[in-house]
Write a structure and sequence with these properties.
This protein is α/β, with parallel strands linked by helices. It has two domains: 173 residues, Rossmann fold, CATH 3.40.50; 172 residues, Argininosuccinate synthetase, chain A, domain 2 (Alpha-Beta Complex). The protein has twelve helices and 14 strands. The strands form three sheets. It has a five-stranded parallel beta sheet with strand order 3-2-1-4-5, sandwiched between helices. β6 and β7 form a beta hairpin. α1 packs across α6 and α4 crosses α5. It is elongated and about 80 Å long. The termini are far apart.
Length: 404
């Protein structure tokens, strides 16, 4: 193996990365630095420190990145109304560039030769971690154990952990738990019974949201305030980006909002079935489109919608730091300067319904023009005659010549 003196491991303290920590020490005979990012996964992170310490790690980094994650990654993505393949809110994908940035930073600070991650060789995350890391440090070396070792099933990982007395979380039958990824935007579930796309997820899979069937029988109305395309207050109470995401999660989870069962196309070529909980993001997407509906010019809004799938694919595939994503972001952010106002929403049994939208400073909605009552000359309906005939001209010509 290539000589590595020190490696920074993206360390969660879970099954994969706990095994990888020991494996790096044994296979590469290198010093391992652990980096654990608090991005709102809702877990106690001190056990990760204790696990790393027991395994002989001297440099342990546990950092609270929740505000940075929400402000610099989640919010910019939602300004674009981003959905991958029409359904996936990219909760895992958007966290990877943030983690990659700090892995590279810590490697520089500690004099490490390499970074290491626990992403499987079949998945997207290996691509996301490494593309983003190479963009930030073209000379960085990357260790991806899943592409090197023979522990190529979750059952083998469990056996390895038991052999080396590494504590792990398993199902009651002793098998490996679902593969999960959690942060303040979402939780994803893959593997196990979910590998059969015909098998419905058991209710026990879901950890955040109540079942829509068990959600409150009365709807809840909330008002979300936007400034320059970002949510800044709920019910008039100002919140920081991190506080906002967590508050929206609590609202959505209480009403069974944000569950998704998706078969998606991975960048590496295969289809994958995943189940996701994104309660706050589901509310935010609906509200953001509502405030844009009255504040964005028609052609600007349509252009954003045309470009969004490309933007979403860039994030999904791991190109957050690529020049094309940055270029699109500048355009998106420019479009958001006047996206200011309030959206009223009703939350009820898994659904989010827009009940009102208002912008006192930037609305392009003109009631004097759209009214069915007397518009007092604000719009001359007869003008539509020429408009229609001019737009129909090419169709009429083609029709006369039998081309339609």
């Amino acid at each position: 193996m290539e000589k590595i003196n020190k490696a920074v491991l993206a360390y969660s303290g879970g099954l994969d990365t706990s095994i990888i920590l020991k494996w790096l020490q044994d296979q590469y005979h290198c010093e391992v630095v652990t980096f654990t990012a608090d991005i709102g996964q809702g877990e106690e992170l001190e056990p990760a420190r204790e696990k790393a310490r027991i395994l002989g790690v001297k440099e342990i980094f546990i950092e609270d990145l929740r505000e940075e994650f929400a402000r610099d990654y989640i919010f910019p993505m939602f300004r674009a109304n981003t959905l991958y393949e029409g359904e996936y809110l990219l909760g895992t994908a958007i966290a990877r560039p943030l983690i990659a940035r700090h892995l590279v930073r810590i490697a520089s600070e500690t004099g490490a030769d390499a970074i290491a991650h626990g992403a499987t060789g079949k998945g997207n995350d290996q691509v996301r971690f490494e593309l983003n890391a190479y963009a930030l440090n073209p000379e960085i070396r990357v260790i991806a154990p899943w592409r090197e070792w023979d522990l190529n099933s979750r059952e083998r990982l469990v056996a390895y952990a038991r052999e080396h007395a590494i504590p792990i979380e398993t199902r009651k039958d002793g098998g490996a738990d679902y593969s999960m990824d959690a942060n303040m935007l979402h939780i994803s579930y893959e593997g196990g019974e979910l590998e059969d796309p015909w098998t419905a997820p058991d209710e026990s899979v879901w950890r955040w949201t109540v079942s829509p069937h068990e959600a409150p029988d009365e709807p809840e109305t909330v008002e979300l305030t936007f400034a320059a395309g970002d949510p800044v207050a709920i019910g008039g109470e100002a919140l920081s980006p991190g506080q906002m995401v967590m508050a929206l999660n609590q609202l959505g989870a209480r009403h069974g909002i944000g569950r998704a069962d998706i078969v998606e196309n991975r960048y590496v070529g295969m289809k994958n079935r995943g189940c996701y909980e994104t309660p706050g993001g589901t509310i935010l997407l609906k509200a953001h489109r509502a405030i844009e509906s009255i504040t964005l010019d028609r052609e600007v809004a349509h252009l954003k919608d045309e470009l969004m799938p490309r933007y979403a694919t860039l994030i999904y595939n791991g190109y957050w730091f690529a020049p094309e994503r940055k270029m699109l972001q500048r355009m998106i952010d420019e479009s958001q300067v006047r996206v200011n106002g309030v959206v009223r929403l009703e939350l009820y049994k898994g659904s989010v319904t827009v009940c009102g939208r208002r912008s006192d400073t930037d609305s392009l909605f003109d009631e004097s023009v759209v009214t069915f009552e007397d518009d007092q000359g604000a719009y001359h309906q007869g003008d539509a005659d020429g408009f229609i005939k001019l737009n129909a001209l090419r169709l009429r010509i083609a029709g006369r010549k039998g081309r339609l």
